[in-house]
Amino acid sequence: MHRALTLAGLLAAIAAVVAQRTRNTSVFDFPEYPPPLTPPPNQTIADSVEPLPANETGGDKALSGLKIHVDTGKYGPPIELVHAYFNFWPTGVGVSSDGRIFTCFPRGNETFTLAEANSSTTEAPFPNQDVNTPPAFANTSNPGFSVATNKLLFVQSVVVDGKDRVWALDTGRPRVNGTMLNAATPGGPKLVGFDLSGRTVATITFPTTVVAADSSLNDVRFDLRGEGFAYITDSSPQRPGIVVVNLTSGESWRHLDGHPSVSAQADFIPFHNGVPNYLHPIIGPHAVTPFNRFAVDGIALSADGEFLYYTPLAGRRLWRVPTSLLKVQPSSTQPNAILLANLAVQDMGDTGSHADGLESDDRGFIYLTAPEHNAINRFNPKTGMVEPFVRDPAIQWPDTLSVVSLKSGGNFIYFTANQLWLSPDYQNGTDLRTKPYAMFRVPIEGGKASQL
To answer: 0.85 exceeded by the pTM?
Structure first.
């Protein structure tokens, strides 16, 4: 009896469908999509609708009042301008737990390269002018090379570590008389640590087997567990790699030399403010090239210090490698150290924009600057996805990031915006930037990942 009722019900259903179809007046009368499910999050956070300007509707009254779907150019928490640079152009920023802001400037004829903000619009040399004044920049006995000195030559990155110490990464390669960077002389490139009073607590130099004359030290992160280690990106297109420093012994070594993950993408073309950006170099033969001279750049440690994340500037992929393998110094007693580190590199996927700076927080997020989107996004290792964080038209080439948990309350990410792609090196010698350059901050849920 049950089977008979089921069969009868089925026949009745078929009859109803046939009857409905005979009543249809159009072959198009059917659902186009299946029933909707929950849409992905964040898909419309930068979207709005608004009427177009009169000159974009051709004077048609039927069109002029229509609200058209538009990109607002913004999402995320509001940005706060905390510092304006009217003098030198900035790269790095580091913020101490008491709110002191440290910053650095690529060295040409700038009178100092490491500084502290002493007002919202001015900076003073840190720890003083003397430390920022080398005896010379050019090496008179070796033309084309810089000098060896304990003074600061060209600080590319400044980082405040989990113990509130200020670290300056000196490339040792200043620009002199409008030329390209001088080659480094041993004793010029160095990592210098200061306490907040300005007292030098560490100075680490590098042998030529670790930092060569044409190396380009770029950014640094600190793992203060155990002996303590620093990880430095070498962005040189000739020798891209990761420099590892034992902070207790002062010894240093290299890993991932020439690995595809640290190398520039040969045909890379970024888009800034919607415009494709090729290199228009100021040196001969003045041939236009892809934006392909910039290898591994941004760097961040996972909250637990177990992974080092990094990205080449000329590329749109995020990579990571276990720090346990980077800490092994290649030697005759560790002959497989290089191979094992190379084999352990993990591709974390496409980032949607090239990234200049990376940073982490204590919740595990990896923040990535996104110069192609005037934004900062974040990678979530738990989902393997890049998430939108903050976007604003004023974020013109976000360069370096610094997460801080302030003693006065609040967690923030600070970042510089320096319009780098409009600078003379990339625009045939013409400076298309507009002063002031900017430093912003944005509140975040997580705090500083100290790796203590």
So the answer is: yes
